[in-house]
Design a protein that fits this description.
- With 153 residues, the chain is mainly α.
- It has helices spanning 2-30, 46-69, 74-96, 103-122, 137-143.
- The longest helix has 29 residues, at 2-30.
Amino acid sequence: MKKALVGSLIGVAIVVALDSFARVIISIYMGLNYPMISYSEFPGIIWPMLLTLIGGFSVFFGAMFTLTYGRSHRLVALLNLLFFIILLRYGQIYLLTGIESLFYPITTLVLSLGSILLAWQLTDPKKNSAPQEVKEESDLGESHQDYHKPQEN
């Protein structure tokens, strides 16, 4: 259980770090002050859309780390991460309410939840990527006996 909690906290730290790093890089490139949670301070439509997509990808990377680190308690790790990500994204939506359009923060929340679901599906240990048919040697030996014997004339 400790690994699940630590993994989810590190996963949220990955999300915050990647989101912040992307905002810093874009802010330096555009010559803007560093807007921590805002989307409308970036000019045009490309940069807010890019930040929205980066928000979804960063949650995917955080979820992949969380679900692989807390492998023994996957459900607890998933629920902890889900709680922290919803708290993070809802806090962002709450702070931007009345200041700017909520389209980008809500889209980021939806992409984040989808990313967590995708990471859950990809790290599922019970799901086999390719079905494997296991045949017993006795069945294999009986059905293919004539293949390795030369025909006698």
